[in-house]
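Notes, p. 3: input format for complexes.
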Amino acid sequence: MPSPGVAELKRVGAGREAEIFAWDEGRVLRLARSPFHGRYVERERIALKAAGRCGAPAPAVYERVDVDGRPGLVMERLSGHDMLSGMLLRPWELLLIGPVLGSLHAALHEIRAPAELPDLRADVAERLQSDLVPADVREAGLHALEHLPDGDRLYHGDLHPGNVLRRGRRFSLIDWKNAARADPAADVARTKLLLVGAWIPGLGPRLPQLVLTPFRLLLYAGYRIAYRHRRRLRDGATKAWRPVLAAARLAEDIPQERRRLLGIARRGLRGA
Ligand SMILES: Nc1ncnc2c1ncn2[C@@H]1O[C@H](COP(=O)(O)OP(=O)(O)O)[C@@H](O)[C@H]1O
Ligand SMILES: [Mg+2]
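Output follows (272 residues plus adenosine-5'-diphosphate):
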């Protein structure tokens, strides 16, 4: 059977990087927006397989399918809503969400990453080469990266409430395109960047979103307490990763975040 074109598919979800379409019974196709993101789709496939083998809460993964030149991955269709929209509708859930994210993340970091996943340090070094990273930040970031540790754990790289689907008491982690092999502290540092300050698409310009900052700090505090309850972190480990990951995120080209990311990167990398 010839494979369908995008126009014939029914869209059931969308994010900044991908669109999700209904596929066979109980399955969806996560199709990257960019035709050049095949290797991220492959990373997601490998990470989802490893997560599934180890019983981590994530959709089951099936075949790779390209549609209209865009790379995609067929996976289990999950019901329920993402925790970000849940939280915007029921703000008191903020107190639940932090601990859920912290426990999920700590459990994930018990999993040894498959060797086929890229090492995060190599991945970050590559992102720092982007034209969107100013030369001084690139140089300081690459230097700081040399002193950061390797790791062997499953790194999700995008853990935030918009990437956790909830149905009743069941929580599943989606959106594994950034998956890598890494020091878990790097994943915690990345989640802090996202929880506290990522621009939230669909919620208007960046400036008015700043009123949410105290709530976001509360969310991060709940996450961090729950994480530390289950896993130890070396002192200063997340702090060391933070400016380097902020510099690497510049490559994601999010104009609303650029000033903040540059501030975090330049302050943290001073003297590096
Ligand atoms: N396995 C799935 N089952 C059902 N809906 C999904 C699934 N994966 C993603 N979605 C929906 O699509 C949206 C975007 O998916 P995501 O993988 O997070 O893409 P992006 O990388 O663009 O953020 C999610 O917020 C969710 O609503
Ligand atoms: Mg997402």
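The longest helix spans residues 213-230.
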